[in-house]
Write a structure and sequence with these properties.
- The chain is built from 17 helices and 25 strands.
- By secondary structure, the protein is α/β, with parallel strands linked by helices.
- Among the domains are: 12-203, Rossmann fold, CATH 3.40.50; 466-562, ANL, C-terminal domain (GMP Synthetase, Chain A, domain 3), CATH 3.30.300.30.
- α2 (39-55) packs across α3, α2 (39-55) packs across α6 (151-163) and α10 crosses α11.
Amino acid sequence: MARNTFLKENTINCLLETSVERFGTRPALGMALETPLSYSELFSQVSNMAAVLKKQGVRKGDRVAILGENSPNWCIACLASMRIGAIVVPVLPDFPEADIHHILLDSEAKILFTTQRQVEKVLGLREHKLLAVITLDDFSAESDLLTVEPISKFVEKARNFLRQIPDKIGLKSTAVGADDVASIIYTSGTSGHSKAVLLTHGNFIANVLTTSNYLLEIQPGWTFLSILPLSHTYEFTLGFLFPLLNGSRIAYVGKTPTPSILEKICKVEKPEVIAAVPLIMEKIYKKKVLAAFEKKFILKLIAKVPGLKLRIYRKIADKLVEFFGGELKTMAIGGAAINREAEMFLKKSGFPYLIGYGLTESAPLLAGGPWADPTIAVGSTGKPIPGVEIRIADPDPKTGIGEILARGPNIMQGYYNNPQATREALDDEGWLHTGDLGNFDKANNLFIRGRSKNMILKSNGENIYPEAIEDKINSCIHVMESLVMEVNGQLEAWVYLDYDLIDEETRGRNQQQKLEYIDEVLLRLKETINPQLSAFAQIGRFVEHKEPFEKTATSKIKRYLYAH
């Protein structure tokens, strides 16, 4: 484990207590453009909530579910539950109703925290063990099957309860150790098989300490802009626990982070750190960078002169930093693979970014950074983080590619109520079998080549990694996203196009002419991509996919929905 320079115990409870002692009056977290809670105010509200949860009958080991959008109340509910030893079950807000019902029943949750936008999904829940449903945004709702109350009423119970006792219950945390389960997280994977991951306090703290000591140094008072769901380990660990440990302020966007909303918020909040998925930076790259070179003849000419092209890249990078408020020190990018061409621009332009790799099962970080290491190669995820061992199982003799295995203090205990899946994922020596394929270069950079389940084995014995082909296709300016699969013995590429760009390019044409133009775009894609591929990996057909692909919380396509 990373060197613990702050905490007496490797628990989230100790993290909160230590931060309150060190940064009591500093701002801790709040909605963007609103006055934040200080660390002391956060701790007070967490203690009050812990008291009323205890009064409600929640005990150590009980499950408390949270289904809602990011907010200070989400954080308070989470920390209060963990404070009394309860296990938090965060639920992704975009899960469908059937999945939410399954999670609440399977986890046997006692309390559910939710919001107005989500509460309709649970009002019809039957045969549950919920004692109460509390709306984090103070929304009132009624149900014959559930007791629903706004958080203000719930907190008022705490105040009344605390007035009656001299020793304020909740101010001292229930005895919780590093090996106690802190969270059960139901994954939303690309394979379609949801599993419930058991992560301990020690798992999370191992990742947080490594991030602090190795990946990125931050200063107290820095602002983290939160745009990803807290119910995902990526945001929870790196966008919540990490800044809290270091005295930073967290600002929650609270809306879909469109470019216009981000620009407006960043102008005021001026964040130093943002954790993002590749899709955000890829869109900005195509709209702000690639489009400029495609449309402006003079830029195309200048771009052929290496020195001038680099100067243009750096000016564009400065504009992007300004777009994010002007104070950006790091854009952390993870959760999915970033397009190589887009990353090449970020690297050459000097834009401040970090790539990381991990899984829910590893709380989540396995490899990444560190910041400003000149040996990190574009296309890689950086180095294995300290304290984590990574090895490649059964590597291909020619390519060195094999399944990525990981072992360390951040690796899960197993899957809840699923011993068979646990045995398949964790071997007797403690290695987590990630299901990802990868290899190392000579500088110890880890490259992710795809999922073992997605690999296509051709009749001639050649292995094809569809993610690598998709990366090339997604570099094309007309493509928003793509999916490569084998259909009837040949490879097909399904592409969702940039219809705004196509509309702009076909302005004045009738509908038939627009359809013919799309056919031309698909043909040009085939003519552009196939020469970049090996003979055995040629794409037989490019097919227009007229809607965005369904994706996980970190913007990975749910491939199983499109499998033949």
